[in-house]
């Protein structure tokens, strides 16, 4: 089952209000985390990624924008799979960039590898870079 949270959707209450100081929020907004959250996250190829999932049947997927974003960040920062998992689990700046609420997160190595395989199989990373991020 597909799970999507539109990154452009504005939340009534910002879940980061209780955990970020004004200075920390400003820092995140002005650095890669803010750019990623407010510009790049919505460009992730979740439509192509969701084609592998039934729209209503089965176990709910991980939130697809955040998973696609994590794979993109993993590649950009040259993280190993374990480093990407730890960033997803523990790093609040990564939670902010991926538009995830600042609560405990977990993902298995197998789940990450499965989504990476889908990215590679469908050439989604190349598509993101060539069609969405590189200026025409």
The average pLDDT value, as a whole number, equals 83
Task: Tell me the number of strands.
Answer: 0
State the low-pLDDT regions, or none.
none
Helix and strand composition category: mainly alpha
The proportion of strand residues reads under 5%
Helix content estimate: 55-70%
Order of helices and strands: HHHHHHHH
Judging from the principal axes of the Cα atoms, what is the shape? Answer: globular
**Spatial extent as radius of gyration:** 15 Å
Summed up, the domain count is 1
| Biggest pleated sheet | none
Beginning-to-end CA distance, first to last residue: 35 Å
Total number of helices: 8
Please give a structural write-up.
The protein is an all-alpha fold and about 140 residues long. Helices cover about 55% and strands about 0% of the residues. It is built from 8 helices and no strands. The protein has helices at about 20-30, 30-40, 45-50, 65-75, 80-90, 90-95, 110-120, 125-135. Helix 1 packs across helix 2 (about 30-40) and helix 4 (about 65-75) crosses helix 5 (about 80-90). It starts with about 20 loop residues before the first helix and ends with a helix. The mean pLDDT is about 85.
């Amino acid at each position: 089952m597909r799970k999507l949270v539109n990154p452009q959707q504005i939340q009534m209450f910002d879940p980061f209000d209780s955990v970020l100081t004004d200075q920390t929020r400003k820092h995140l907004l002005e650095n890669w985390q803010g750019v990623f959250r407010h510009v790049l996250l919505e460009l992730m190829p979740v439509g192509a990624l969701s084609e592998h999932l039934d729209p209503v049947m089965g176990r709910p997927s991980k939130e697809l924008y955040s998973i696609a974003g994590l794979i993109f960040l993993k590649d950009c920062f040259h993280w190993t799979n374990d480093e990407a998992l730890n960033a997803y689990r523990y790093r609040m700046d990564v939670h902010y960039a991926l538009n995830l609420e600042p609560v405990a997160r977990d993902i298995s190595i197998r789940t990450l590898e499965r989504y990476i395989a889908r990215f590679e199989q469908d050439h989604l990373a190349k598509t993101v870079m060539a069609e969405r991020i590189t200026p025409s």
